[in-house]
Amino acid sequence: MHTPALTRQRVYDPVLRLIHAWNALMVVLLLVSSQLAALLQHDWPVPALWRLHLWCGYLLFLGLTARLTWGLAGPRHARLTELWQPAAWLKALRERRFFVPPRRFGHHPPATLGYVGFYALAWLMVITGLGLAAIDQGVGPLYFVLGYDFLRTDWFRRPHDWLEELILAYVLLHLAALVLHERWHGVPMAQAMVSGYQYLQSERKDNDGQSNPT
Ligand code: HEM
Ligand code: HEM
């Protein structure tokens, strides 16, 4: 049986991995708390679930700010420029091929479109969530502008509610893509944000375009 040789490199630094785990955990808690609160409707745990939701929202705000800061100050593979790869997005769109095997160390270039999209959505959730916190619960940094201003509730509630579906779709696609890359392209993908090591099939190239033999 032919087993492809793999080459590996340490790519994701511990701070980036910590921020990724933090943000992923907050997103899961936000999804679960809002779904549970909607399911239970008027039962006693609902106010506590919304308080938990708001605190996870603040912690996501912190995590997103940390990611932006690390994108400006962190090492090469954490930089914001690694996430901004319009040439790769255009190529993938033109060829209608997003699901290609990873060929370089660093973020999978076509997938960076999904990452940028996710961050844009997450920031919109923070802004609309802070608006709802001021209107529904009379708390948070927007309280002095919007405190209990129920006339404006729709401005924030509708987008917050709609974007939830997109956040959920992103999470499901992201996890499915990691599993499918492993199955179809034979590289251990998911562990990279845990161990920091990325694997590629041999003779694939580094981000500089340099050959990287085993
Ligand atoms: C992954 C991100 C998030 C998801 C999926 C999510 C989901 C939801 C959903 C489905 C609702 C119910 C909307 C409705 O009443 O129709 C809601 C309400 C709310 N969300 Fe979020 N949210 C997220 C992020 C945030 C963030 C970042 C904050 C704050 C910074 C926040 C604060 C709130 C508040 C205050 C409410 C209203 C709770 C109440 O009625 O007392 N959310 N969220
Ligand atoms: C469930 C919520 C999750 C969310 C919201 C999420 C979000 C993200 C985001 C935004 C990125 C871009 C990273 C960056 O800023 O540089 C990313 C990359 C990545 N995530 Fe997740 N993630 C989640 C769960 C997971 C899980 C459970 C794993 C597996 C352990 C994982 C593995 C990875 C890997 C390996 C990458 C880098 C992929 C590449 O090289 O392009 N993620 N994720």
Based on the model shown, name its key terms.
single chain, 214 residues, mainly alpha, Fumarate Reductase Cytochrome B subunit, two-stranded antiparallel ribbon, 5% strand, elongated, disordered C terminus, binds protoporphyrin IX containing FE
Can you walk through the features of this model?
The protein is mostly helical. It has one domain (6-201): Fumarate Reductase Cytochrome B subunit (Up-down Bundle). It contains eight helices and two strands. One protoporphyrin IX containing FE (HEM) is lined by residues 16, 20, 24, 27-28, 67, 107-108, 111, 115, 118, 171, 174, 178, 189-190, 192-194.
Distance between the termini: 20 Å
| Gross geometry | elongated
Helix proportion: 55-70%
Count of the separate structural domains: 1
CATH fold descriptor: Fumarate Reductase Cytochrome B subunit
**Quaternary status of these chains?**
single chain
Largest sheet: 2 strands, antiparallel
Order of strands, widest sheet: 1-2
H-E order = EHHHHHHHHE
Class of secondary structure makeup: mainly alpha
CATH superfamily: Transmembrane di-heme cytochromes, Chain C
* CATH structural class: Mainly Alpha
Mean pLDDT across all residues, rounded?
Answer: 92
Please state the CA-atom Rg, rounded to the nearest Å: 20 Å
How many alpha or pi helices? 8
From the 3D coordinates, which CATH architecture would you assign?
Up-down Bundle
**How many DSSP E strands?**
2
